[in-house]
Amino acid sequence: MSATLPLKGQPCPACRELGRDTDGDNLTVFPSGKFHCVAFGRDKGHNRRIIHLMPELGSNDRYPSSGPCVAIRPRPAPVKPKTPFAWPELQYGTASDFRQLARLRDVNVDSLKIMSSRGILRFATFDGERAWVAVDPSLKNAQARLLSGDRWRGMDCMSRSPRSDSGAVHGWPIGITAADSFDAIALVEGVPDFISVLHHAGCTGQENRIAPVMMPGAGVRIADDALPLFVGKRCRIFVHDDAGAGAGAFTSWCGQLLSAGAVVDGFSFDGLFQSDVSPVKDVNDLCRIGADSWETHHDVIESCMGFATEAVCPE
């Protein structure tokens, strides 16, 4: 009896050439010499290729009209394009959202509204918890934090990012696709610094001349596909003031941007202190500058966003 049964579950050599049949079971061979590929059974060209690769099958490549073959498994369904984010709806934000975020990070409400009008700041509700989201208009990258200031429930982290399998690009600079019409870019590390840029720029009337752009972490390199968007821009890098990761991030990003054709410099917070006398280490800390530091270093502090008025050097 076994000699009359079809030999099911063999690798199809023609499918293997196409990178398919990874399970090795596309081909069924019947005792008569006939055969059937479950993926391309009625494709004459595919059947001829099978015979070329397996000449022992002869020329009986007709689709069998009868026989003891079991049901043929269907072709895999077409792969649907990945959705950019499996997140809740991103919203412009309510007046309460803006006020709560302004209090949480010591920035002014007007600067947050400008960011929202550019499409780089949104709000969303995750499992009943309200969050603010730094997002690139391309939806290639984003980071969310809770408006409560707490860590995410069940997660030992402050910031939440979309998974790479949702189409997100971890090294994509958030805000860069909204910077096309701006000559000056403030490149920062992390969401709190991202929403602090226009707060400081507004203090000297530069809020409409500067584009805040954010990298999700000091150890993340700028995605190669994003580098052409920095060509011809004047970029000031604001990294966290430390000798380890911050210094490494400046060296890495500066090298990438210079090679892309941007004009680059950096800003140091050295010698500046917050009102609680702790040192200023980043752009958001600068929102809480102490009176003594302001009096002593007000020229340096006011020049923080002054690079927007400097002309880009010709090539």
Summary, kept brief:
With 315 residues, the chain is an alpha/beta fold. The protein is built from eight helices and ten strands. It has two domains: 74 residues, no CATH class; 215 residues, Dna Topoisomerase Vi A Subunit, Chain: A, domain 2 (3-Layer(aba) Sandwich), CATH 3.40.1360.
General description of the model:
- The relative contact order is 0.09.
- Strands 8-7-9-10 form a 4-stranded parallel β-sheet, sandwiched between helices. Strands 1-2-3 form a 3-stranded antiparallel β-sheet, with no helix packed on it. It has a 3-stranded antiparallel β-sheet with strand order 4-5-6.
- The chain is elongated and about 95 Å long.
- It folds into 2 domains: 6-79, no CATH class; 95-309, 3-Layer(aba) Sandwich (Dna Topoisomerase Vi A Subunit, Chain: A, domain 2).
- The chain has helices at 13-17, 44-53, 95-105, 109-117, 191-194, 197-203, 245-260, 291-302, and strands spanning 7-10, 27-29, 35-37, 121-126, 129-135, 142-146, 184-189, 210-215, 234-238, 263-266.
- The model is unreliable at 1-6 and 60-74 (pLDDT under 50).
- Helix 7 (245-260) links the parallel strand 9 and strand 10 (263-266).
- The chain is of the alpha/beta class.
